[in-house]
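Justification of resources, computational component.

The compute hours requested in this renewal are based largely on the per-chain cost of generating structure records like the one below. Each record pairs the submitted sequence with a full structure-token output. That output is archived, and it is also reused by downstream analysis tasks.
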Amino acid sequence: MSANANDTVDSLHRAGKEAGGDFRRRAGNIKDYAGDELRAFVADVEDLVKRVGNVSDADVTRARAKVVGALGDVRRLTSDTAESLRDRARAAAEQADEYVRERPWTAIGLAAAIGLIVGVGVTAVSSRR
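The structure output for this chain reads:
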């Protein structure tokens, strides 16, 4: 029985690592897409600021200064946010791994309960059809 439990714990550990890898990959894809969109937006705004740079109206000059300041803030914020998100995801994966190692039977019970819930849900959906 102990060998079976160890196999289950190892299997949960591998599944957790695979899920963490998948999460990191998907988060990277989302981050890349969002980063591309943000870079395109910032480039458009910078282009607009350059085009308006020749206008000598005082209101336009003040608005231009505010936009340039906001662009700097956006750059700093996106850099901080990406790093923070990466750190939180890494910490969550480490905590999940530690939890499974410290409480293998609880992890097995949770996995069984989740499997049961998913199974009941699938059965209910398929019986409606």
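The mean pLDDT is 75. The radius of gyration is 25 Å.
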